[in-house]
Design a protein that fits this description.
Shape: globular
CATH architecture of the largest domain: 3-Layer(aba) Sandwich
Radius of gyration: 22 Å
Strand content: 15-25%
Structural class: alpha/beta
Low-confidence stretches: none
Mean pLDDT: 96
CATH class of the largest domain: Alpha Beta
Helix content: 25-40%
CATH superfamily of the largest domain: Thiamin diphosphate (ThDP)-binding fold, Pyr/PP domains
Strand order of the largest sheet: 2-1-3-4-6-5-11-7
Distance between the termini: 59 Å
Number of domains: 2
Number of strands: 11
Length: 335
């Protein structure tokens, strides 16, 4: 049977997109719709699951199956679905508040289990849907409606959390760098295991320009380093680079050091120590990395293993009888 050739427009639902004009979410939605036809997965085999937040409207705008679940619990719904329907391609759409605050525990355990799904984390460093409170990724000192004297919380770094949980695919992209975003989403979808893509996404109403240093093309060259596997870490049009000195990274002028002094990016290294150093580079003292930090293959997935256990149990004990299970053990009747 020949599957129909799909286009980006085939993945657009008939719902009006209700994000604020100029929101970075539009870019992520557009790139997702462009990437999906290239994956060759039918729409009826594609599912988007979201929690609560501006980003979590996403399933409404995709002409696929989807679920708008509850705050922070999208990973739990996704785990149940993928475990029972391993044939589906499952995406979790979440935000910095949804994933890292109330959903923090679910987020960590999803990553460490290596369920074969894809997570796209929209990070705008603010609570947008609830009108501008600070979020787990808001910078220290940020003045918001809930922190009028400035936030005193140290911000959480999503990529560091993911690497600490030993996620097998960890990446970052930008809403304004559309070509890079599309390529990163495609690589995430092709990875077998849990893939995390953090996307810097501008909230032009409550936190406008918070990541302009990375998103604006004229600033990006000096402040962002694009990771490429097997290539030296350079930025600023090749005039600057990163080298490893002892146990820390430092910025150097490429003209001042031998070429082999520069750090070569290895996304496949099973030891995430260097990858963790990259994840912790932050503006303004260091350029921030975008691209794939980590892509480790060959790690068994949670859904594969749980279904193997079910198959083994069935082979040993036969198919279960639900009525027999209900009446097993100690039972009693209430008169």
């Amino acid at each position: 049977m020949t599957l129909p050739v799909l286009k980006a427009s085939d993945f657009a639902s008939d719902q009006d997109v209700r994000w604020c004009p100029g929101c970075g979410d539009y870019s992520i939605l557009a790139q997702m719709k462009k990437v999906l036809p290239d994956l060759g997965v039918p729409r009826e085999k594609t599912v988007f699951i979201s929690g609560i937040g501006c980003s979590s409207r996403f399933p409404y705008y995709m002409n696929t199956y989807g679920m708008h679940s509850i705050h922070g619990r999208a990973p739990a719904f996704a785990t149940g679905l993928k475990s029972t329907r391993p044939d589906l391609m499952v995406w979790v759409i979440t935000g910095d508040g949804d994933a890292l605050s109330i959903g923090g525990n679910h987020f960590i355990h999803l990553l460490r289990r290596n369920l074969d799904i894809n997570v796209v984390l929209f990070n705008n460093r603010i609570y947008g849907l609830t009108k501008g409170q600070y979020s787990p990724t808001s910078v220290e000192g940020q003045v918001t409606k809930s922190t009028p004297m400035g936030s005193i919380d140290h911000p959480l770094q999503p990529l560091s959390v993911a690497l600490a949980a030993e996620a097998t695919f960890v990446a970052r992209s930008l809403d304004a760098h559309v070509k890079h975003l599309g390529e990163t989403l495609k690589r995430a979808a092709e990875h077998k295991g849990t893939s995390l893509v953090e996307v810097y996404q501008n909230c032009n109403v409550f936190n406008d320009g918070a990541m302009a240093y990375a998103q604006e093309k004229k600033q990006r060259a000096e402040n962002v380093i694009e990771l490429e596997h097997g290539k030296p870490l350079t930025f600023a049009n090749g005039t600057k680079g990163i080298r490893l000195v002892g146990t820390h990274l430092e910025v150097v002028e490429t003209s001042d050091v031998p070429a082999d002094d520069l750090l070569i990016h290895d996304e496949t290294d099973p030891n995430p120590s260097i990858q963790m150093m990259l994840a912790r580079m932050s503006y303004p003292t260091m350029p921030e990395p975008i691209g794939v930090l980590r892509a480790v293959s060959g790690v068994p997935t949670y859904d594969e293993q749980i279904n193997q256990q079910v198959q083994t149990a069935t082979e040993k004990k036969g198919r279960g009888d639900l009525n027999q299970l209900f009446n097993a053990g100690d039972t009693w009747s209430v008169q």
